[in-house]
What does this fold into?
Amino acid sequence: MYTERVLKERYLAPVVSEDLKEKMVFVGGPRQVGKTTLAKALVGARFRDAAYFNWDNQQERRRLMAYEWPGSAELIILDEIHKFKGWKGFVKGAYDTHKDKYKFLVTGSSRLDIYRKGGDSLQGRYHHYRLHPFSLAELSGGGTAAVPFQELPVGPTRQGAEFGLLERFGGFPEPLVSQNERVLRRWHGERNERLFREDIRDVEIVRDIGRMKLLGDMLPAKVGALLSVNALREDLQVSHRAAAHWLDILESFYYQFRIYPYTRAAFRSLKKEPKLYLWDWSEVPDEASRFENLIASHLLKFVHWLHDREGYKAELYFLRDLSKREVDFLVTIDGKPWFAVEAKSQDESVSAGLRYFRDKLKIPFAYQVLRKSGVDKRVDGVRVVSADRLLLALV
It folds into this structure.
């Protein structure tokens, strides 16, 4: 039953199809999150025929560079073409020449938007999306009706085991479908090995890939804590510049993401270290940290949807001042606080930090989200609610 749900059309398919009528569409996201499946699912359902080219395939690469495209194709799918140094110029030329005949979809396991710097700009020719792992709303067949600066449309918990499956196996299709611990362990190892030995090597120059891999091994234990590059540098015995550069690379390849402290308010904010989370929360060994990572990932997916699809300047932060009062997450629109979220496993008593920052920053809505099910109540203006209810209100 859950396998059938997972293999259904991904949440971006309808909007990508719609945007392809106007411009190229770029879809980035981590390895094995479902980008190729998303692209190929458009064929038949929304386009009669397509030409698919994977840059990693030598024969397809040759056909692509020779412009050997089927005359019957409506859609040209370019997968992993960012590994080609001159890809921007090639894509720009192909689009400008053939946009009246073909639609162009570009997918890749690195941040395609960062490559627009320098050279021939693709600005104005494409819409960019970030494909996320499955979330509770997507897996349960829900969708967001959230409106900025209004309360999240939290409803009753839907019956099902989706939340437990997501927490245990993560949101990537293969381990989620398998629901098997052995498959999950093997998938972790194989995916990370290919990330470091293939994807990163093909695009970036890393002189010490072994130590960079050690950095990757260290990060799951750092989830949810303030991240000190200097501490990582000392542990790895490398320069500060190298450690910082490796973190940037891992972020650009969607292995990890960082959330920074909100600093646009008149309070004694902590202005330096971010907090780190993984795109695949199932790698996080500590149960409480894994739950916090799951919440962070759902909020990031929501923020990216608001930005990529709806055009809002949406951002995800955390709150912490010099007195060490802290709130796990803050969602803003145009720099203005919309709602704050504090993640707790079981504790239903409202966090003092959540109360403080809600009043200090005049945050319209505050949620304390719990791992345990069956809770939804208001305490002093804070909504204390189970994760399996709140997350259904997102994307």
User: Anything to note?
Assistant: The mean pLDDT is 91. The radius of gyration is 21 Å. The chain has two domains: 2-130, 146-393. The first helix runs from residue 2 to 6.
